[in-house]
Design goal:
heterodimer, A: mainly alpha, B: 769 residues, alpha/beta, eight-stranded mixed β-sheet, five-stranded parallel β-sheet, 20 strands, 51% helix
Chain lengths: 94, 769
């Protein structure tokens, strides 16, 4: 499939990606309206899709956040999670 | 760029993430395919009902019905079982991939994915659709012939032998422990056994030998150009090899007993010839001496006859109907009789509903409150001191086994005990009974020669676990002794932990039994969670609430001198509960420790659970009748303990009947008021009571998850399903059993005590509590 076609799809879903990043960030910032489950789900979806859209580092970072929040991977302290989220945002912007 | 080659084909893409479905759709459409999408398994089934696609690409983790459930449904439906399915999932663990493939997926692609590669895999599946295993001539993994092809080959060889006068034979090879292993580990046990048995046939196979399966999954060995002497020699060799090797099932090592029957080929259909070999194998079952049995015409006289006498048929019918009738009787006594009492008294001018209704409500509330109390108390269970009060003394384990049922796994169990970490002498006594000599006894003797800590101890004439344990006490040298069933694997540090309790004033400590075969079936998963609810919540909670614990029959540690005095009474169906109550009534102390873990096998079918729980329920009823008066009279028990005994032995037996009483009371009120719609359902006390009692199930499940052993706690889905199953079915299933058990006890029906396995078809016994 052509890179242009993937780029068009990426542009279409960019707002959804931003929304998922916000869900993660809001949860990390302690917003009580955003549950841990919602943040895990958002990270899970990003982990599954970013790499397929040509952003492999984004998938790796999202997976680490998913596992840390879901209790299935290496634990991260709050500062570590914030750093991961920042790197994830940067990876998506690239 | 993918070359379009999927023209005219349709793909169903199932994923709840639209970023993924859009990307996959774009790739497949560019390859010329028509794409239909669905957001979960339920929607996928709706799309499939409209049209069956050429290929399915599905996510695994989805809300509603997930991908694993979807593929299971598809593979069970004739219309969709051949449709290739690829999983596309973020669940990237090896176990997930294997589970997906085992359930019937044709490929498993991990997310994130390369779109071109995914499209290539999809097109490959469309171009070369897989063939279901049962339609293959040979099993792809083992090369074993399918049952239909096996019959064809036997028939062809018989015809050819008749024409050329060349000798040939057919053998049926069964593994005596196959049913038991399948009941414990699920269908995978069959596959794993087959793979290893076939592997052991191969090295010395003749050039014309063929291996197939019959319809019941037994191996069929076809030996063309082989005379009788050579056939007997070959089968002897196979039998010895299978019996001598240790196989692996579900990660554990097992020892198996091959059962071999054979028949020379001659005139006759394949079914006749295979029937002869099968009959000979059944004759070999009677001996289990590893010697292959040749078919002879005399064996036909032993074949089962299809119909018995009329009197026999009536007896069978009565036996079959007995339990359903008992269930009906409990409903009549529990619902209809109270309803008629309300009605009759009302006609005489006495309306007792004003008393019975609040009484029933109060009873339900008391039960619910006690269960909540147990849960909260279990959050902070009693702990043993950090260090033992005296040095670690010599200790013993008594493993009770009925060998024909445990032969496959008992050696592995003994080896697990020999690996326990204990700083002083640890003696392992295997107290077993068997109605006939078994090959595994030689292996056990060899193990004892190698490691003097192990003492295999055959209890002649025994018919119960109680007899085995009592007899073994003569051999026990330890100052304290752990009692186990033969499927238990205690944690390495268990004996150290047990001594911390026993050295600090306790007489018995009961540990936490964790189910280790929960993945075998939905029933096993239910039992796995229920065991957490029992051993991690109820037992420690009750021990704090009532100030005494209960010995559950396995994974319990006793001071040896006390067990020698108390003994197990074989006349009781649950000799373990009886023995613990005798300890408590005499002033002894029993602790309940959720961190003293041993892993065991649970029953995997509804029938096995019914049988096990019926035995437990009848045993508890026996114990209640015997011990409630004794407990009230006991001078050693405090008032709180007596209340606990009353709750455990009295209330526990009455409650299954009380739980029904809302039906006759509401039925009467509806009759009195002229219809259900005339009742005021929104009475606050009714609503609050309903809510409170309904909260017990979820509450118990939450406590169980919070306190569960780590490997069970990780299975969140098991707990959710348990909540659903217990709410809809399982709790009432156990109440029915409790009521029927009382009728059985009153009518003197006691079939549950001994569970020998005399024939290949008999049901294996269940692991004890």
């Amino acid at each position: 499939m052509s890179a242009d076609a993937v780029a068009r799809l990426w542009a279409r879903f960019r707002p959804l990606v931003t929304e998922r990043l916000s869900v993660i960030q809001d949860h990390l910032d302690g917003d009580p309206a955003v549950s841990r489950e919602a943040a895990v789900r958002a990270a899970h979806n990003l982990a599954g899709s970013l790499g397929s859209y040509g952003r492999p580092e984004g998938s790796v970072l999202a997976r680490r956040i998913e596992e840390a929040l879901g209790g299935t991977g290496a634990p991260e302290d709050p500062a570590g999670l914030q750093a991961l989220a920042a790197r994830l945002r940067a990876a998506v912007e690239d | 760029m993918t070359a379009p080659s999927g023209g005219g084909r349709t793909a169903l893409v199932v994923d709840d993430d639209e970023m993924v479905t859009a990307l996959v759709r774009a790739g497949l459409e560019e390859a010329g395919m028509t794409v239909v999408t669905a957001a979960d398994g339920h929607e996928a089934l709706a799309r499939l009902a409209e049209a069956v696609p050429d290929v399915i690409v599905s996510d695994v983790n989805m809300p509603g019905m997930d991908g694993f459930a979807l593929v299971s449904r598809l593979r069970a439906e004739p219309a969709t079982r051949r449709v290739p399915l690829l999983f596309l999932s973020s669940r990237t663990g090896r176990e997930d991939v294997l589970a997906g493939l085992r359930l019937g997926a044709d490929d498993y692609v991990r997310k994130p994915f390369d779109l071109d590669e995914l499209v290539g895999r999809v097109l490959a599946k469309v171009d070369r659709p897989p063939v279901p295993v049962d339609e293959l001539v040979r099993d792809v993994r083992t090369g074993v012939l399918s049952p239909a092809r096996t019959r064809e080959e036997v028939e062809r060889e018989a015809v050819r032998g008749g024409r050329t006068a060349r000798p040939a034979a057919v053998a049926v090879i069964e593994i005596a422990e196959r049913d038991l292993l399948r009941s414990r580990f699920g269908a995978r046990a069959d596959d794993e056994l087959l793979l290893q048995v076939v592997g052991r046939l191969a090295p010395d196979a003749g050039p014309l030998e063929q291996v197939g399966r019959d319809d019941r999954g037994r191996l069929v060995l076809l030996l063309p150009e082989t005379d009788e002497a050579a056939t007997a020699a070959r089968l002897d060799q196979i039998s010895a090899r299978l019996a001598g090797d240790r196989l692996t099932v579900a990660g554990g090592r097992v020892q198996v007993t091959p059962v071999v029957g054979w028949a020379p080929l001659g005139p006759g259909t394949a079914d006749t010839l295979l029937g002869r070999a099968t009959l000979a194998a059944e004759a070999a079952w009677a001996h289990l001496d590893l010697r292959p049995v040749r078919w002879t015409p005399e064996l036909e006289a032993t074949a089962p006859r299809p119909a018995g006498s009329r009197a026999g048929a009536l007896t069978r019918l009565r036996t079959r109907l007995r339990t359903p009738v008992q269930v009906l009787v409990t409903l009549l006594v529990g619902i209809l009789v109270p309803f008629l009492v309300h009605l009759g008294l009302y006609r005489l001018g006495i309306d007792i509903s004003g008393v019975t209704y609040p009484l029933v409500v109060a009873a339900l509330l008391i039960t619910a409150a006690s269960i909540w109390a147990e849960g909260f108390l279990a959050l902070r269970p009693e702990q043993p001191p950090d260090e033992p009060a005296s040095p670690y003394p010599p200790a013993s384990a008594v493993i009770a086994a009925y060998l024909p049922n445990e032969a496959a796994t008992v050696v592995e169990t003994v080896e697990a005990f020999l690996r326990l970490d204990y700083p002083a002498d640890l003696q392992i006594v295997l107290a077993y009974n068997t109605p006939r000599p078994l090959p595994v006894e030689e292996t056990l003797a060899e193990l004892a020669r190698r490691d003097p800590r192990f003492v295999p101890f055959k209890v002649e004439g025994s018919t119960s676990k109680a007899q085995n344990v009592n007899a073994a006490l003569a051999e026990v040298t330890g100052e304290f002794v752990g009692v186990f069933d033969a499927d238990h694997h205690p944690d390495p540090g268990s004996y150290r932990r047990a001594w911390r309790w026993l050295s600090s004033g306790y007489d018995v400590v009961q540990g936490h039994c964790v189910i280790r075969n929960g993945d075998a079936s939905w029933m096993a998963r239910t039992i796995a969670v229920e065991f957490e609810s029992i051993y991690a919540v109820s037992h420690p909670g009750r021990a704090r609430l009532h100030r005494f614990g209960i010995f559950g029959g396995s994974n319990g540690y006793w001071r040896t001198d006390l067990l020698r005095r108390i003994r197990m009474h074989g006349s009781m169906l649950t000799e373990d509960i009886d023995s613990s109550l005798r300890v408590v009534e005499a002033g002894g102390r029993i602790a309940s420790d959720p961190h003293l873990v041993s892993r065991e096998l649970g029953p995997t079918t509804v029938t096995a659970v019914w049988n096990q729980r019926m035995r437990w329920a009848q045993g508890w009823f026996q114990v209640s009748l015997k011990h409630l008066p004794l407990a009230w009279r006991s001078r050693a028990l405090s008032v709180r303990q007596k209340l606990g005994m009353t709750f455990l032995l009295g209330w526990r037996e009455v409650y299954p009947w009380i739980s029904l009483q809302m039906f006759p009371v509401i039925g009467f009120l509806a009759w009195r008021e002229g219809g259900l719609d005339r009742l005021d359902w929104l009475v606050p006390v009714f609503l609050l009571t309903t809510l409170f009692t309904a909260s017990v199930g979820p509450g118990q499940t939450v406590f169980a998850r919070r306190l569960a052993a780590p490997e069970i706690r990780r299975q969140r889905g098991w707990f959710l399903r348990y909540l659903l199953i217990s709410s809809l079915f399982y709790t009432e299933f156990k109440n029915v059993i409790a009521r029927v058990a009382q009728i059985k006890e009153f009518t003197g029906e006691r079939e549950w005590k001994v569970t020998p396995r005399a024939t290949p078809q008999a049901t294996p016994s269940e692991p004890a509590r």
